[in-house]
Amino acid sequence: MEEVALNPGKKWEVKWLKEATGKCFHADPFGILEDGKPVLFFEYFNGTKGEIFIQSNGNESRNLQVSKYHCSYPFIVEDKGTIYCIPEQQASGKLSLYKYNRVEKTLEFISCLLEGFHAVDPSLVFHEDSWWLFCTNAADKGADIRLYIFHSKELSGPWNPHQLNPVKTDIRSARPGGHFFTKDGQLYRPSQDSSKGYGGSLVINRIDSLSPEAFMETPVNGLHPEQLSGIYTEGWHTISSCGKFTLVDGKRKKFNLRNILKIFRKKPHAFL
After folding, report:
1. Strand, helix or coil at 67?
2. 0.85 surpassed by pTM
3. Which CATH number does the domain housing residue 27 bear?
């Protein structure tokens, strides 16, 4: 992943999976390896809300039925040999931890990490003997603007807010966009650049200082959809690592005559 993230302007060949039909779409890919092959977790937006799906060995994708609320961004992390998933479900006002059952290929609820906080795109990393949780807040006048950090000695919590929350206010690089990674001992964080619209591109940030009392990062590279092969050249907002594989999503614009016809079919209003 670091090769993709830190290589400015290089074009990458992507093996795109089958596109969802109609008003549905796939997004936010994360994954693990089983027998050397990727098992993918991703958001399936069904036209009304997002759900967490899983796909492995080329089989049909399957709904993991995590929550009745909109779910997306199924962030995957490993702790002490166990795989966990922390999907976004900000509409519930909670952030929950799930364990991945390798046998049943299901997600099992473990605990609530945050309550009363509308965490968007929660991303975790273990760094210098602590767990760090990065996210934005949907209840804070926009999910793309302000970055919040929480920290804990254990993945299950308790989680404490950073003393400087929100630690950053910047629509160009606040909202998380995938897995952290380390290169030459330096920690990096992908984030979304929403300055020209949601899901436009990514920014890679070098984390220069991280403690309960301090935070500083420096943008070092931008990732743009034109770098991805194929037709998805209108946006790129998630990058994650799955062994030797790098997982990405892309966006394209599609002309829909049906939506245009709906405009002309609307009955005119009479004003008195």
Report:
1. coil
2. yes
3. 2.115.10.20
